[in-house]
Amino acid sequence: MSQLQLFQPDLPATKITMYRCLECPILSFERRSLCERHVFENHSGCGYECTVYHRVFNRPNNHSGRCVGNELLLRKKATRTYKEEEAEEHRSFIRNLHQKIEAMNIIGVPHLNASSYSNITEWATKSS
Fold first, then answer.
1. What torsion do the CA atoms of 52, 53, 55, 59 make, to the nearest 10 degrees?
2. Host domain of residue 37
3. How would you classify residue 8: left for phi > 0, otherwise alpha for psi between -120 and 50, otherwise beta?
4. Could you tell me the pTM of the whole model?
5. What is the 8-class DSSP label of residue 51?
């Protein structure tokens, strides 16, 4: 899709910002918070272990309300432990999370709906 196909002179041009994971450049997100959640869930190596079922979940709300009296503990997925060096690695990952995300400003885009975003992101990825 070219830039000319995106711009329609009879509609006011707008600017949108999409966010892209640098490790998964094919994925893009409308909101920074969704991109941050993707990066944490898929690239941090950490998860939340249920003390009742001993399963590790990507997010705490993936398991909330399923068992009474459970506690979710932050754990390293590979080792299922959370020692001090793993805790420091996790804190460092969180501090540097913004470096794993790229904001893409796309100008000249008229009215958008949900199906338009994937086409625009595809175009922006090829254009940059």
1. -60
2. 3-127
3. beta
4. 0.64
5. T
**pLDDT at residue number 108:** 57
Residue 82 pLDDT exceeds 80: yes
Q: Summarize the confidence of residues 1-21 as an average pLDDT.
A: 62
Predicted pLDDT of residue 111: 47
Percent of the chain at pLDDT above 90?
A: 9
Pairing of strands 56-57, 72-76: unpaired
Element at 120 (helix H, strand E):
helix 114-127
- Mean pLDDT confidence for 49-68: 76
For the stretch 24-33, contacts whose Cβ atoms lie closer than 8 Å and that sit 24 or more positions apart, written own/partner, are 25/125, 26/125, 28/104, 28/117, 28/118, 28/121, 28/124, 28/125, 30/117, 32/101, 32/103
Positive or negative torsion for Cα 59, 65, 66, 72: positive
Does the pLDDT value for residue 85 go beyond 70?
Answer: yes
Looking at the structure of the chain, the number of domains it has is: 1
Instruction: Give the C-alpha separation, 77 to 79, whole Å.
Output: 6
**What whole-number distance in Å separates Cα of residue 4 and Cα of residue 17?**
19
